[in-house]
Amino acid sequence: WTEEHPEWPQAKPEQPHGRLPVLVEKSADGSADFVITESSNIERYLARVHGFLPADPKQAALQEQIRDLISDVGVFLGGYVQAKDEEGKKALFEKFEGLFETLVKVQTKLIKDNGNTGRLFGNSLSYADIVSYGFYKNVMIGIVKFDASIPALAKPKLTPEVAKLIATVEADPLVEKHTAKADSLVAAISA
Question: What percent of the chain has pLDDT over 90?
Fold first, then answer.
């Protein structure tokens, strides 16, 4: 695959929905064969293509609902970080905190119900595992440049099961080769 960065905003009218990101699959002759947009749509499509989502629609939906819960938590976190007035900031933070606790509780139960393997579903890396790892990495490492208090709040709320999920995903060879040079999430939650 190749990553391309169109000139922005000049290329905006040429993009589906006038937005990025866009995934373009090309045929052997280099012409666009398949074009989709919207981050979550691209994410789910790639998860299906590469076998991280099960073929069974009900089993896939169980994983996708975890992604949707993570998205909801992220909306309130992003709103909190961007809010200007203290009253709005406080309300958004409370919503973030409540949904974050719900996410950890839901994931802890899923991990326990899955035999405490460090996986949310099954015995191999799943879509839900990957998006969960990415979310926690953003909360524990990425958000620091905007608000250093968030990791200190989130860290004590992580259960041993969620910590094991993070360690299991970070150690997975499919993930490790992409994260080896990045900050370790395991180290961040262990410090």
Answer: 90
